[in-house]
Every structure is written in C-alpha cells, then in structure tokens.
Records
---
Amino acid sequence: MSLASTSRRLGRAAAAIVFIGLASCRPGGTKACTEAACGDEVEIKFEPELVAPGRYHFIVDLDGVTRRCSASLPNPSQQEIMPECMIRQGDGSLAAITIPRMQPKVVALRVVRDQAVLTDTRAAPIYAVERPNGPDCPPECSVGRVTVEIKEPTTEVHR
C-alpha cells in the first residue's frame, strides 16, 4: 500500500468521523448526554440578604414537615452541618436556604436572630423543571423558588 493511498483512506475516515459527529448534533440524530445529577428541592431566597452579626435560626415548615437550621455571622463558614437544609452564603452574608428532596405547595418560614423575629411568613414556591444534561437527557428535576422579604426589627422611641 502506498503512502498516498493510506493518506486518502485516513482522510476519508476523518471525514466520516466528522460527518457522524455533525449528524449526532442534528434533530433526530443520536445524542450523547452528560451525567450531571440533580434533585428535587426548594430554595428560599432572602431579600435583602442577611448581613447583621448574630446567631440565626431558621424554622421551615414544608406542608407539615419541619426543617431547622442555623448559622452565625460574621462567620457563616462555622455553620452547623445539617443535611436537611443548606445555607447559601453571599459575600459576608446569608443569601438563601435550600431544602433538598422536597416539593411543598406552601413554605412557612420563621427567621430568628438572637431572639428577635425577623420574619414569620408563608409563601407558595414557583416551580421550574431543570435538566442539567440538556433538554432530551435525564434526569429531570423540579426546583421551587420563593423570595422572602426580611425586615430588621425596629426599636420604638418613646418620648
């Protein structure tokens, strides 16, 4: 076999591989999926993020199932390890709580900092379907999101 014929065969093989790769990207073609995982969850975002120093306690009722978690500022990295809720940190703040494996219709949240109640509210999450590996690939997860307004307690001034 000559060098020229080997070169032509390799060129044809490379063209075939490119064609197959392009065909798999077309609608109806085969598609390779990544293997990213996801899980059903609900995220409770704080507006504004919690920034005042102190010990925070979060009591979350999800259609009758209660989850409790806590964290401290200014050192949010020293939070307790609690698999039933994950506290998302901002830049020196507490930004949100995520509760895994839950899809409640209603979320009731009580936030307490150093015995002061910052909020005691109920809200219905808005759910979206997420597919981390693409629209035609499993898994499919339901992620609920709700934003909760946080107000600092006011100190009344008596005259």
Note: The radius of gyration is 25 Å.
---
Amino acid sequence: MEINQSKDLRNIHKKLRNDMSDMEHKIKSADIVKNTLALLESDFKGANIFLCYYPFGSEVDLLPLYENLLNKGKILYFPVSDVKNHQLYFYKISHLRSDFVKGAYDIMEPKCDLEIFDYQNIILNQSNKIICITPGLVFDRAFNRIGYGAGFYDRFLEDKNLVKIAMCFNNQLRPSISTCEHDVKMNIIVTEDEVLKGDRL
C-alpha cells in the first residue's frame, strides 16, 4: 500500500470514529461486546486464553467484555510495547485496574512484574484456540487490516497459530483496502451490526 494512501485512510476513519457522540459510542460498543460474547459462546466455547488490548480514546470500549471473560475464569494477557524494538510482550492480568499503569503512547499497559505470555510453551499445552483480540483503524470485508502504522501487531502475529478477531465500528469497515505483503489478515471481524467470518480458521 502507498504510504500516503494508508495515512489518508487512517486519518479519515479515525475522524469518523472520533466524531461519534458519547451516547452513540456507548451503544455501539455495547452491541459489539454482545455480538462478540455470542460468537465466543457459539464458536469458541472452549477457548480459555485471550490476548487483549486496553481501549484508548475512541476505540470500541471492550472493558465490559474483559470483565465478563475474567468473571468466567478466562486467562487474559495484555500487551506492553517495546517502542525501541517495535515488539509486543503480553502479560497476564487478574484485575483491570490494579494490574495496569500508563505506558507507551499514554495507553494503559500491564505491570511488567506479571507473568509473561510464552507462546511456544503455551501453544504446546493448549488444545483449544488462543484468541487474539486485535486493534486497528481500518478493516475490509476481505479481512485486511490497517493498524496505527508502527507494525507492532503484524510483527507479533506473524507465524503464530492464533485466532485473530477484530472488533470495530461499522464506520471503520470498507469494501476493500490495499495491503502490503507483511500485513496479517484477521480471521473474524465483529461490528455493531454483523459478524464476518473468514475461511482461515
């Protein structure tokens, strides 16, 4: 994808998201959480491990989803950004408040003295799918994703056998977007109105 085109799409869709009223944002976020919970119950009932992200700014409010998963005894990990090396490291959390501090880009991140996500060890002992709830600014109906530009998630997701689920508002979803070779596709996209399932599960 051309850099200018990607930047333009980010700016357009970030503005659309930012321009929603507080009430619209709250209602649509709740609908996305409801649709996601229904998806997990129907398709991934046995999934116990979730790689999550802490919502920032006008992103979908997924905190009620995480509270629900914690109450069900699910294991949740959240990322810390290694800005220097453009890498993500995930840490296991038990509480959505006390386990977090403000980190890179002013986003809430888990404390680094928590248990780290060891993919190679966990995947060997995990029979069910591991869910990665993946952020982004723009998505399309072919399950392509445009992130925030730093490439953290594309690097992390490469060559990992994870179910990649994106939750986004309808105004972040386009019919198609151009992609680069290194861009990682999503498996599922959930909006306030629909659940799109890919054929790569």
Note: The radius of gyration is 16 Å.
---
Amino acid sequence: MTALVRYRLTTLLLSQRYLAPLLLFAALVTVLTSNDTGPLTAAHAASGLAMLLAATWLTMALAGLDDPAHRAVLTAATGGHRRLTTGTVLAALAACLPLTGLGLLLPLLVGDHSPTAADLLLGVEVQLTCACTGAAVGLLTARPVVRRQGHGLLLALALLLVLTLGKGLPPVNLLLTRLSGHHRSTELVGSTALLLALAAALLGTAAVVGHAFAVRRD
C-alpha cells in the first residue's frame, strides 16, 4: 500500500494538478487571517474552510488522474479496486498534511497571536475534519462515480454549499458555527474530536460507494 500511495502522489506531482488547490488554500488563509488579532478560533475556521475546498479539489484530481485503460492496468497491478480506492484515499489525506501545517503557520505569520497547546490541537482537529469531509466529497464527485468532469464539478459545488451553509449540519457547518461562537480553544477540543470521527466515517462511507461504482463500471 505504501508503494501505491507513493505512486499516486508522484503522479499528482508530475501532473502539477496540485498547484491550483495549493495556491487557493494559501491565498484564502492569507487573505482571511491577514492582520488578525482576534481569537485563533476564527483563524481556524478560515483555515478549515480553505482546507475543505482544497481537499475536495485534490481528491478529485487524484481520482481522475487515469484514463479508463490506464486505470484498468493499475487496478490489476495493485490487486483490485479496493486497494486502488484505499490508495487514493490515503494519498489524498497525505496530500492534505502539508496544507495542515501551512494552515497552522500562516495565521501566526500574518496575524498577531500567542498560541497555546490547545489552540494548536484544535487547529489540527479542525483541518483534519475538513480534509476528511472534502476528500469524501471529492470521491463522490469524481470518476468512477461521476464520469463527466463538468457534472462532477457542479455536484461538488452543490455538496460543498450544503455542507457549509446547511444550518446545524455536521460536521462542517456545525464546526464553523461553534468556532464563530466560542473564543476559547479548550472548550472546543473535545466536541471537535467527535466531529473529526464523524468526518472520518463519512470518508469511509464515500470510499465504499466509490469502490462499488468502480467494481460496476470499470
């Protein structure tokens, strides 16, 4: 599995499809947290929203790297659809890890904050929650679930709008609402961990759905 994840990440790097989501993430975090002197919970909300978009984009790029013929060869070489889907999920999460570090660092560089251990832990939880949710959206809106790229993009935008604007909808809207209503990270670490577990479950469900479509269509 390690070799498969490395291969997927190498292919992503060579294709340069990571550049657009990376630049989008950095730009959003910088603009939304620039000269910020308020509580870090607001900066975490901005970083989480940027991560949600970037993770969705990166996952769609990873899932759509291969044409049908190449995907068939890769499936046979890796030992089946399940391993290929799992490798794509792990590669997407691995691609989000550097963004997590960037999302923690940028608000400290462009704003005026004195972070505590609870602030940093909460920031990691927020970004991982949004990364898992974004990866789930990406899996459900890319090949082989949605064959046409334009249709997948529209569906991804619709799902992201529902997740971010649906009042009280976990994990993303509920997370952003809590971050905007609380200023102490210590009060949110526990509840955010539960939302992270929910986001991981959503990602697992999306992987199962993606695998089912791959078996049927490939």
Note: The mean pLDDT is 92.
---
Amino acid sequence: MERRKALKHMGWAMGITVATPTALSLLQSCQQNADTAWIPVFFTEAQGGALIQLVDLIIPKTDTPSASEVQVHSFIDSYMKEVPEKPEQDLMTMAFTAFLNKALKDSGKTEISDLAAEDLEPVLAQSLAQRSEEEEAAAMESLGAYMQAVQEGQPAILDEAVARSMFAGNLRSTVIWAYKTSEFVGEQVLTYLPVPGEYIGCGDLDQLTGGKAWSI
C-alpha cells in the first residue's frame, strides 16, 4: 500500500473535523455527566490528569470557562475509546506516551502523576512550533512509513519528535472543536439563535451579533 493511501486510510488518531452524530452524542453525554467524578475509560488515571492540564493549557479559564470546565478532556477520552479502530488507538497511546516521556525527562520527574502544567507547557509549545517545509515533508514521510507498516502488519517505528508533534497538533484541533461545539459555549459564549428564527439575508455582523461568530 502506498504511504499516501495509508495515511488517508488510517486517518489521524484523534483529529476531528466533521461534527458526526457519534462525536456530537459523546460530547453531549460528557457534558450531562459533568457533575460526576470523572474516571478515564481509555487513558490511565495518570494520563487523564495530564490530559486535563493540557486541554486547559490550550484553552485556559479567562472570562469564559476553561476547556476542562466544559468536559473537553472527558469527550476526548470517550471518543478514543468508542470511535477509532485499534491501530489508531495504538498510535494515540504511543504518541501520548512519547509526549509525556519528554515532559518527564525535561522536568527530571519519574511519575506522570507528578507532572504539573509548567512541566507540560514547554513540551506542548515545542511540539506545536512551526516547522519548515522540509521538516514538514520529512515528518509526513515518517508518519506515512509508520502507517504503511502498520497496515501491512510489519514492525512500525515512528520518530518520537514526529509522534509528539502529531499528538499536540491533533489535540489542539480537537480541543478547539469540542470547546466550540459544547452546549455552554454554543449558547452562552457564541451567538446563538434557535431554529427556526428570524432570517436576515444581508446584515452587518457587528450589528447582528456584536462581532461574535455564530454558534453551530
């Protein structure tokens, strides 16, 4: 199988770009269970603690809730348990492990549960740093080779820096998607108009919504 086809067939482990019924249902379920103690179903308890800190590094609390306050971490955990196939789950586990191992090494700590936001933030920033076209092409080649090997049942090894970058990029996009799609943000932060509602075919955004984006 060609590497480009392997990439397309396997997809990203966690990146969500389409509001599928399954994803929306999981997101709603997580928000409904916000008052109960969260127990990870895909990640370990220690990884879950790190995940909470990471989603809040991406969207911290300001005058609006943080990502964890609208249960983004719970959604990601449930999504990884219910939706991707095992090869994608394995890729996520490997990439997250590579990310956490880097944080442990740089911080001098030995337990994931001991990692704090200040230990995770430098690794997140480094993993999200913009790469040159040559570096991006090399990373995609490495990821394509890994996925091709997985699809063919061959030993698969992915460079840890590439794994960390893939994890961080997918995490950021998923956190933003889940946050903007959450019920609270959709109704209380973005401009929300129940359907059916008044239709104004042509109007100034600043006048109609105060400059806010429409909730979906």
Note: Residues 181 and 216 are 7 Å apart (CA to CA).
